Amino acid sequence: MKHSVYILECADKTLYVGCTNNLEKRLKEHNNSKQGAHYTKIRRPVILKYSEQFPTLTQARSREAQLKHLPRTKKLVLIKRPLVRPV
Questions:
Q1: Which of 5, 9, 13, 14 has the fewest CB atoms lying closer than 10 Å?
Q2: Rounded to an integer, what distance in angstroms lies between the CA atom of residue 74 and that of residue 28?
């Protein structure tokens, strides 16, 4: 099973970093469901701007932590790259 780390752009132009094993389902949850993260629920709609795939959850969580600690300016540079980067 592949695990994805992703960056969303919220309606207020803030960025959200997350991790999931089903990116399509999680994106729908962020935009439509009560199961979306509270941060994104109050900033809908959200748009997928970037994602990376990893073979293990451990690798994905590690990358998620790295991205969450990046300053906004570096995240903006990152999301200008192609949307999906293969492992």
A1: 13
A2: 26
67 neighbors 75 (Cβ within 8 angstroms): yes
Exposure class string for 20-55: b at 16+ Cβ within 10 A, else e: beebeebbebbbeeeebeeebbebeebebbbbbbbe
- Residue 41: both structure tokens together: 């629920």
pTM of the entire predicted model: 0.90
Where does the chain have alpha helices with state H? 23-32, 38-41, 57-68, 72-79
In this prediction, residue 55 carries a pLDDT of 97
Asked whether 8 and 2 are in contact (CB, 8 A), the reply is: no
Token readout for 78 is 């990152």
User: Six-digit token pair at 47?
Assistant: 């748009």
pLDDT in tens, 32-59: 988 778 999 999 999 999 999 999 999 9
